[in-house]
Amino acid sequence: MLDANGDEEVHYSDFLAATVNVRGRWRRETLRKIFNRIDRDGSGTISVSEVQRIVAQSCEDASAETFLKESKVALNSNGEISFEAFAELFDRKDLSIAGSPSSPKGVL
Q1: Cβ neighbours of residue 63 under 8 Å, at least 6 residues apart?
Q2: Alpha carbons 66 and 42: distance in angstroms, whole number
Q3: What are phi and psi of 91, to 5 degrees?
Q4: Whole-model pTM over 0.85
Q5: Measured between alpha carbons, how far is 98 from 89 in angstroms, rounded to an integer?
Q6: CA dist list (Å): 55 to 4, 46, 61, 64
Q7: Nearest alpha-carbon partner for 55 in 45, 70, 74
Q8: More reliable by pLDDT, 3 or 99
Q9: Of 8, 21, 31, 44, which is the most exposed, with the fewest CB atoms less than 10 Å away?
């Protein structure tokens, strides 16, 4: 709702608040689509073998274990990545994978 205070006017702050909300929702939906594409078996988590498939396509010299260790992604008790942990990776400012050829200076 754009008119947050009910005065029947859309103020700049109302517009900004609505924009941030929509951007956040779109971002989450996009991350969910990416997550689901990686989660090939539809288990709701990303396994080490699913990470290895992606890493092998992107980096010749890297392994899933190296990626998981260097990204410091939170794994569940089964050693898999939940959607929440996956989404948190994209919120971090310190994410860097050494030797990633597809991004400048190894930033993922």
Answers
A1: 52, 55
A2: 24
A3: -90, -15
A4: no
A5: 16
A6: 45, 13, 9, 6
A7: 70
A8: 3
A9: 8
> Rounded to 5 degrees, what are φ and ψ at 106?
75, 10
Structure tokens at 51: 């990470």
- Other CB atoms within 10 A of residue 45 CB: 19
Beta bridge partner(s), residue 45: 82
CA dihedral 12, 13, 18, 20 (to 10 degrees): 110
Q: What is the pLDDT of residues 45-85, one digit of tens each?
A: 999 999 988 888 777 777 888 888 888 889 999 999 999 99
Q: Which residues contact 105 (CB under 8 A, 6 or more apart)?
A: 96
Task: Estimate to the nearest angstrom the gap between the alpha carbon of 96 and the chain centroid.
Answer: 14
